[in-house]
Design brief:
- The chain is α/β, with parallel strands linked by helices.
- It contains 5 helices and 5 strands; from the N terminus they run βαβαβαβαβα.
- Helix 1 links the parallel strand 1 and strand 2.
- The longest helix is centred in the N-terminal third of the chain and has 13 residues.
Length: 122
């Protein structure tokens, strides 16, 4: 399983990457914001099985990136899990309405990430 991790914090990307690899993913690619995520999608020929997407990022935030991904024919099928410190009900609902498959609140456990990966690989 190949996963794209999008987060503006390099430290958080490393933590998420390590957790995802421990949870059973084969490959993790990192992107620092929404623009970088779209670039990485093109570079890897859209070959991702899942995207873990932060909400609060500079340049292009996670909700905008999610809407762009779900609005494009060649990326709308890729499951997106929002991974953020925002736990407000309104934000969760906005992400789900925009097409997010699931939502993970930081801090998270390896077991929780493993559950999200298992959900996608079924």
């Amino acid at each position: 399983m190949k996963i794209l991790v999008v987060d503006d914090s390099s430290t958080m990307r490393k933590i998420i990457k390590k957790t995802i690899l421990l949870a059973g993913a084969d490959e993790v690619v990192e992107a620092e914001d929404g623009l970088d995520a779209l670039k990485k999608l093109k570079e890897h020929d859209l070959g991702f099985d899942m995207i873990m997407l932060d909400i609060n990022m500079p340049k292009v935030d996670g909700v905008t990136t999610l809407k762009q991904l779900k609005g494009m024919e060649n990326t709308k099928h890729i499951p997106v899990v929002m991974c953020t410190s925002e736990a407000e009900k309104e934000m969760v609902l906005e992400c789900i309405k925009a097409g997010a498959m699931d939502y993970v609140v930081k801090p998270f456990t390896k077991e929780l990430i493993a559950q999200k990966i298992a959900k996608v690989s079924k």
